[in-house]
Amino acid sequence: MSAKLQIELKPLAREHVVSFCRLVVALAEFEKLPPPEEAAQARLVEDALGPKPRIEVWLAFAGNDPAPCGYMILVETYSSFLALPTLYLEDLFVLPERRNAGVGGALLKKAVGLAHERGCGRMEWTALDWNVNAQQVYEQRLGAKRMSEWLLYRMNREDMTRYLSAQADGIDTVGNSISE
């Protein structure tokens, strides 16, 4: 178990872009997924720091280390039923050597605080089914509720292209012609 350290959270700035991208690659490795390629990393940085940011990135610094040891990505969505914004936590990652030192807790506290401060009706995120440690933190320490009645669906870029092409050709998703 790591000792508690002084933790500082900062929004992503240009001087930490390389370290941020390294953390994203480390998260991919932890999740057993292919890491983002260089072009994807460049888009990620542009989406965070460009003229029209799509994501909000916070970095965690522990002790006197000038390199960040964790990060989170936040995106605002909207709930039509609440008629309020929702803060979505896309990524939350802490380097293994800095876990159990309060870094993840500091990032989560920041996210919850931002959601509350911005008048969000809720905050949402996902966890991998095998990441039991994260699930326990979310449920036991945060009091978050697992949403078993909702299923996550995804279409990758190739799926979207295939679907739109089929629609343009008058074919529905199961290969049948669309009746007019």
Give structural notes.
With 180 residues, the chain is α+β, with helices and mostly antiparallel strands. It has two domains: 7-146, Aminopeptidase; 150-180, no CATH class. It has five helices and five strands. It has helices at 17-30, 38-49, 103-117, 132-141, 157-168; strands at residues 7-11, 56-62, 70-79, 84-94, 122-125. The chain has a five-stranded mixed sheet, with helices on both faces. The mean pLDDT is 93.
Question: Features of this protein?
Answer:
5 strands; 5 helices; five-stranded mixed β-sheet; 2 domains; alpha+beta; 180 residues; Aminopeptidase; 35% helix
Give the SSE layout:
Blueprint (H helix, E strand, L loop, with lengths): L6 E5 L5 H14 L7 H12 L6 E7 L7 E10 L4 E11 L8 H15 L4 E4 L6 H10 L15 H12 L12
Parallel strand pairs: 4-5
Antiparallel strand pairs: 1-2, 2-3, 3-4
